[in-house]
Amino acid sequence: MDSTEIAFLSATDTARAIKTKEISPIDAVQAYLERIDRLDTQLAAYITVVREEALDNAQRILDRIENGEDPGVLAGVPIAVKDQYWTEGIITTNGSNVYKDFVPTEDSTVIKRLKDAGSILLGKLNLSELAMGGTQNPPWGIPANPWNFACTPGESSSGSGVALAAHLCAASMGEDTGGSGRGPASYCGVVGLRPTFTRVSRFGMTHMCWFMDAAAPMTKNVEDCAVMLGVIAGYDKKDPYTSHQPVPDYTIHIRDGVKGLKIGLIKELHYTKDMHPDVRTAIEASLDTFKVLGAEVKEVSIPLAELAGAIFVGIADTEGAGARDEILRVRPGDLDQASRTRLQSAALVPAKVYNRAAKARVLLRRQVMGALQDVDILISPTSPYPAPKHTDLTARFENEDDVRTRFFFRRAYTGCYSLTGLPAISIPGGFTQDGLPIGLQLGARPFAEKTLFQAGYSYEQATTWHTMVAPTMQNT
Amino acid sequence: MAIDKNTVSELAHLAGIEIEDDELEEVTSRFSSLMQELDRLKDLDLEDIFPVSIFPEEGQI
After folding, report:
1. Which parts of chain A have pLDDT scores under 70?
2. Which CATH class is domain A3-473?
């Protein structure tokens, strides 16, 4: 197997190839390092590459395998993580000049668990400043979407989406507050999961909004995502809000199919005038696919869904402004212009308005849970339109309508699950006529990630979207 | 609810936040839009609802 073939393997296939000694962990790490050297100048997926450490760890994993040990389910799999996770001794920038010299003294729990499972950290990935989105001048470069360099890869886990679509790592960790993992997954044609809120420890993950931040596995396919969640999920005494519920083997029922499952199309997120026609077509085609696979498809109503973007921003940005209060007052000049104005505007929100949004969040949860009494899975696009051009995303807002269209509308789709603490996954669901990926979002009841994996895997096996290679990555 | 730059300047002053002159218009647009969107929540019946930070694992709120 040559280095390109190795780099294009999924995480689980990489683990299998290492286990059967078809390739070594050193082969795998070198394959990715060579691609990073060759391609990342243009892609800007990585902020930091830990070359020597990765090769040393690959040798250690190889030694353990040769000694007959089982180094873990991700033994020798090269991964990269959003530069929001603390990594002992490695700079963790949070995508901001404010943190450009921050070197954590310990690993986040997610990083520790990934290492314990045998994975090998290649480096830290680019992101929007402070995991917010809209950064105009990212200090470590503007990540390029491999499907079209002129387009954004999504925010804020931009580097994670790019690194997967460009095969610069086998699997990745993003973070998802309001869609920061699912959005880039959608725009880059990969898989992104937002787990149930208390499912994964957030210790050592720099916060944007304490109520909604979630660790988000991002992968090349659904099976990889199931494996990654199994590794990182579970109670952590360092994050007392993590659930004590046992962590199942998420791969056991992944091939059970969708026969008998009920899938509900969220009306309020489908029949909207601003949805891109190719996205609408893709969603309706996915419903046909699920029907053929044996699922029952119906429409459900979540009246507050269309306001989820506003509710989300009202809570998350206000929280974020509070959390960054010192930076806003003492050193606002260290922030990117877009981050600064976004946080400044959120800092002015009156308490009674915040309180109303917090109550609306509970009402939204009631409505979503009500819909999930009728169906097993909710379906919508992850984003109502494909990846916008960089220039569209970073342009200053012209007026209030411009803010509404560009800022709130998209956030309603992912915000529904962020606000309600429920799990949701974005999987490749087709392409626009211009060749940009479309993300299909599936949501489920609390702790029903296995149902998401089951449906996602079933859909994936019935389609070829996840096997497509971005044009700029062909023959690389 | 129309919010102008003077209102935003005053609010920012009270909140102890300094907004650059050339960014005041953008902050005003963002804030005004956010308040307009959140204004749409006024019509909801939220009387019997108590905000929570984390939803319980079992049972409805």
Report:
1. 397, 399-400
2. alpha beta
